[in-house]
Amino acid sequence: MIASDVLVAQNVGFAIIAAIMVIGALRVVTTKNVVHAALWLVVVLAGAAAQYVLLAAEFVAITQVMVYIGAVMVLFLFGTMLTRARIGAEKDLNNKNWFIGLPIAVLLLATMLIALNDGFKAEKLPADAPLVTTQQVSDQIFGPYLLPFWALSFVLLAAAIGAIVLARRD
Amino acid sequence: MLLNQFLMLGAVLFCIGVYGVIVRKNAVLVLMSIELILNSVNINLLAFSLRNGNADGHTFALYVIAVAAAEVGVGLAMVLLMYRNRRSVGLDELSEMKG
Amino acid sequence: MFSASTEAAEVVLSSGWFLEHAYIIPLIPAVAFALIIFFGKKMPLKGSEFGILSMFGALAMSAGAAYQWIQRVNGAPEEAFIKPVIKTWTWWQNDGISLGIGQHIDGLSIAILVVVAFISSLVQIYSTEYLHGDRRYTHFFASLTLFSAGMLNMVIAENMIQLILGWELMGLCSFMLIGHWWEEGANSRAALKAFFTTRTGDIGLLVGTSVLFFSANEWTQKTLGVSGFSIRGLSAWALSGDPGHAAITVGAVALFIAAIGKSGQFPLHTWLPDAMAGPTPVSSLLHSSTMVVAGVFLVARLYPVFFEGMNILGTSLNFIVLIGGVTIVIAAALAFVQTDIKKVLAYSTVSQLGYMMMGLGAGAWLPAVFHIFTHAFFKACLFLGAGSISHSASHHSFDMKKDMGGLRKFMPVTFSTWIISTLALCGVFPFSGFFSKDEIIDNVGHNGYTFFMIIGLSGAFLTAAYMTRATYLTFFGEPRGAAAGEHHEEEHGHDAHAAHDDHGHDDHGHDSHDAHAHDSHDDHGSHGPRESGLIITVPLVILATLAIGSGFLNAAPFGHSWENFKKWVEPRPEVVAVTDVAHTTGGAGEVRIAAGSTDTTIPEDHSAPADEAVMSESETATEDTVAHGEVTAVAGEEDSAHGEEAAAGHSTKSAEGEAHHESPCGSETPEGGVCYAPQLHHAPFKWSKAGLSMIIVFAGMLLSWLLCVQLYDRKNKKLVGLTQRNKLLGAGYSFLENKYYLDTLYEKIIVRSIAHPISRGAYWFNQNVLDGIVNGAGICTKTVAGWVYRNVDQKLVDGAVNGAGTTAENAGGALQPVQSGKVNQYGALLFGAAAIGALVLVIINF
After folding, report:
1. Which of the pair, A67 or C497, is modelled with greater confidence?
2. Which residues from chain B sit within 8 angstroms of residue A80, using beta carbons?
3. Separation in Å, CA of B2 to nearest CA in chain C
4. Which sign, positive or negative, has the C-alpha torsion C474, C479, C483, C486?
5. What is the DSSP string of chain A?
6. Which end of chain B is more exposed for a tag (fewer CB within 10 A), N or C?
7. What is the pLDDT of residues B51-74, one digit of tens each?
8. pLDDT at residue A6, as a whole number
9. Residue at C694 is within a domain
């Protein structure tokens, strides 16, 4: 009973968070206010973190919150400020491509949904899967996936340097 | 929990992100749409990782987050540059690669 | 007489290497011609060595062949048909017509071969002195040698095509040689006149050959296995009764027209006197003894064709004898008004050729051929004598009235050889002309052509007369002009001699042998007339000797045994059986010997037909056998055939000296064989007839002598200028002087009336039609090109090219919006493609 409760709770939680995420995402791409879009993105990111917890990926969830919401979004807001985005609504943030974009998005969505449905049908995730510990993650990182880790460090370094180079005034 | 629900959630976010990339004029907003896409990918990864019972998905999700961060940094630097040169970040006007 | 026996019915005719290989005879001078052309100028004697040596070679081979032929005839029975030595090589055959080259050696060929080779040799030797230093010495010898090759080829020709080849070759060489000094217009005109006149006659040659071929070919192939071109085939065909009357008459007339042209008969005789523009050796070789007798030779060679076609012994008038007779008289008349000694001799030649033709036309075959033989010698001697006079006495002039006279004191050898040859020409006993010319006249009368016999006698009178005139003017009287030592310093008598001179020393400076030319002129100037050198006089003496002696080859007056020429040359009119023509004419390289020394006949069976032909069969593979009245005792029948023949055999006319039976050849169709020669009649010799002609000749000489003395020497007032005072005589004189206005007729009327309209028409055609076509083609091309340019090039092609460019541009322009530079669009593209890709994958894997 507890298991099923837990399951029901998880499902309900999932549904609520998913709904919030979808609405937030939609608001990101439709709002006329840049800052509002950034804030809605924060909502989406937070919802993603919550999903990660549901998916027994706590470390990733924390990392998501810290990096994405903490750093990336701040960066976005900084960028917005620095580019004199109007505080408040702007006239037009959408270009004239919505008649291309919408069909593509719908088509893609339809295709993916059909494929997913056909592929995984009603496969259930394991009910009581153990949590993935940080130790496990680090074992993976410094084990099999060491090389991507190093590459990634270079990427970060390059990104940092590149950003500085690009953005400096001289 | 069904696997499919996570995957479908990811699909929806992805498509919304695609729509945003195509439709949004402001460069920063386009970057935000790209963030949406990346996050949907993360959800997929973690869902599969849970299904398979290993930590591979986690690892890659972390890598994606790192890459996303780096990319945002560089992207915003470019946006700054764009703004400095032409006082606007509308991607409509940025068509010098035309032809 | 018949040899009434018996078994020895094998007739084996001897042959020999020279007879078998007589085809080499024309090849020797042909090779020499090539050598002279290529190497002559570098040789020490300028090419004349090749010519003279080749002629000696030909002469030696001809003499050898003659000797072997004589052996052949002597070794055969009296009445047997002497088969000619024939060889053929097929050169080309197609669809039933085969053309070949070969030799057909019989008595006629041998006689003419010897004559041609002999006189050619003498003339070539003579020319080395006469033309010494000439501007085209080497080419002269080349042409002379080529001529000899051509004539020798014609004489041995086995078929009509080969004969035509030799004929035309001779015509070409005649043209080249007459126009040897072509720098003077008169000489080249004379050469052209000769060529065109003989060419006019040659139309007849081609027509005749074709007609005869197409009529005869079937019969000859069937009966003898030879083509309708071969001489013996045509001869046998003509006498076989096969030919239709029209075909053979047309063929005979056409061939005779060619003979008229070549042998200078009326009306195509006009070229011969003009041909004297050539050097004197040419006149003596070509235009007196050898080339001009080619027409006579043709008639003699294909005599059965003419015999049947003109019905020679059946009428008292036929085309040949008429033309011959007319020629005799008109040429003799013209000889009286000539001042050029060579022209006198030329008309004399025409007249003598008329004798030969008349003889042939009247059935006197052997006397005519014998006259060819003897005439060659004395006429060549006369011409060479004229050349000797011009060379050494009259300072290259041939004008009797201006530059000659009284030369007998200065040129004894030339004078005596001239006199001998003149007497031979006039037919005085015992010179050779008596035995040939008088025989012609005699036989003409004997065969029923009485009118023409009278013409012949008149011709003899006239011949004697004009020759006496020429002799008087040249050798008697007082020397005139150059003969008197007068030296035309200014012009070398050039323009006076332009028409008939035979050398072209324009002035001393032009000669390449300057020194010699100077000498000869200076000698004349300082020494006057004198006898010529040995190189000139020795040939004269040789020929004069023959002029005396050659008559005795056929001295009919002295009896049958003296008639050697007849025995050796005249073809026997016997019926020859033809067996075994199963094998066809030889292919390339195959030699078919029709007259074999290995010919053996073993007669087993014989028929006794109503006519006198006796047939025998051969068992060997040879084709022709010779049959004669010899009968074997094998089958048992003997005398019945004999009896018939003995009774009916002797010729009714053979009183003396004739011992052969009448054969059906010519009068009936031969059965059981073929005839190659018609039965002819021979007039028996009577001294009374000879005496009459002698009287006529002497009368002519005497009368002419008296007139000459009166006219030229004493300048009798009554005679001098007679033609100017008397209108009738004056008209006659100018008629003769203008050569019966024939030249006017030919050149001004016929030629001009044909040539001018034709040339105008041709010009019109050229300007309007041909040029019109060419210009029209040009205009057409231009128009088409313009149209093509405007429509095809500009519109189509350029349109396509430009269109391709425009299309590319438009395509590019159409695709350009894809690369808008807008990031959103790129993103749209990317995701759109991905969506579609995903869709496709899903659909495929659904």
Report:
1. A67
2. 28
3. 22
4. negative
5. -HHHHHHHHHHHHHHHHHHHHHHHHHHHHH-S-HHHHHHHHHHHHHHHHHHHHHTT-HHHHHHIIIIIIIIIHHHHHHHHHHTT--SS--S--B-TTHHHHHHHHHHHHHHHHHHHHHHHTTPBPPTTPPPPPHHHHHHHHTTTTHHHHHHHHHHHHHHHHHHHHHH---
6. C
7. 998 899 999 999 999 999 999 999
8. 61
9. no
Q: CA C724, C727, C729, C730 torsion: positive or negative?
A: positive
Residue C787 located in a structural domain? yes
| % pLDDT > 90, chain C | 35
Which residues of chain B neighbour C833 with C-beta distances below 8 Å? none
- Residue C56 confidence (pLDDT) above 50: yes
Asked whether the predicted pLDDT for residue A24 surpasses 90, the reply is: yes
DSSP E strands: which ranges in C681-795? none
Chain B: partners with 3+ C-beta pairs within 8 Å: A, C
Q: Which two structure tokens, joined as six digits, stand for C166?
A: 């030799």
What is chain C's Cα-based Rg?
A: 37
Chain B CB contacts of C821 below 8 Å = 94-99
Average pLDDT value for residue range A100-107:
92
Name the residue range of residue C782's domain.
746-819
Alpha-carbon gap: B87 to the closest alpha carbon of chain C (Å): 17
Under a CB-based contact definition with an 8 Å cutoff, are residues A6 and A25 in contact?
Answer: no
Q: What is the mean pLDDT of chain C?
A: 80
| Residues shown for chain C | 846
C720 domain-assigned? no
Domain annotation covers residue C827: no
Q: Is the pTM of this model over 0.80?
A: no
Of C159, C160, C247, C75, nearest to C586 by C-alpha is: C159
What span, in angstroms and rounded, lies between the C-alpha atoms of C663 and C670?
A: 9
C-beta neighbour count of C676 within 10 angstroms:
28
Residue reference for tokens 């003496």:
C541
Closest Cα in chain C, distance from residue A117 (Å): 12
**Each residue of C735-791: pLDDT tens digit?**
787 787 787 788 778 778 888 888 888 888 888 888 888 899 999 999 999 988 888
What SS3 state is found at C380?
Answer: helix
Q: Compute the nearest-CA separation of C813 from chain A (Å).
A: 21
Domains of chain B: 3-86 (1.10.287.3510)
Contacts of C393 (CB under 8 A, 6+ apart): C404, C407, C410, C411, C482, C483, C529, C530
Q: What secondary structure, in 3-state letters, does C629-655 show? A: CCCCCCCCCCHHHHHHHHHHHECCCCC
* Residue of B80, B85, B89 for testing the chain A interface, max A β-carbons within 10 Å: B80
Residue after which a domain boundary falls, among C539, C554, C569: C569
Do the bridges between strand C624-625 and strand C674-675 make them parallel or antiparallel, or are there none, so unpaired? Answer: unpaired
Of A100, A105, A111, the CB nearest to C838: A111
Residue C94 forms beta bridges with which residues?
Answer: C97
Residues of A in contact with B30 (CB under 8 A): none
Which chains, if any, share at least 3 CB pairs under 8 A with chain A?
Answer: B, C
Query: How many domains does the structure of chain C reveal?
Result: 2
At position C328, the amino acid (one-letter code) is I
If residue C675 lies in a helix (H) or strand (E), which one and from where to where?
strand C674-675
Give the pLDDT confidence score for residue C487 in this predicted structure.
Answer: 63
The pair of three-digit structure tokens given for residue C216, joined into one six-digit string: 């005869």
Q: Can you tell me which residue has the tokens 């052309």?
A: C37
- Going by C-alpha positions, the residue among C75, C69, C57, C93 that lies closest to residue C20 is C69
